[in-house]
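Researcher: Structure for this, please.
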Amino acid sequence: MIAGIEFEITGVTGENTARITNATVVGSTENAEWRQFFRNMHGIIAPRSDNFTIEGAKFYNINWKEAAALGDCSHCFHPAATDSGART
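Model: Predicted structure, token format:
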């Protein structure tokens, strides 16, 4: 478990672009304390491509070790990653 929500690649532009709207992302609860063993857990990991929107998201209990509400570049941690490094 490295993210609550994760998109790998997006490509559609305009009004039909990939998006997360009004999401509630909960990192840790009393019945899921095992998540705290993951140092780099993120609430949302955005794709390694452009044309993605996050709007109105709320984050709760993402406050341990190196956890963070947002991360970028889904699946860029492996050798075959195709990240270009650009973000818009």
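Researcher: Any notable elements?
Model: The chain has one domain: 3-71. The two ends are 26 Å apart (CA to CA).
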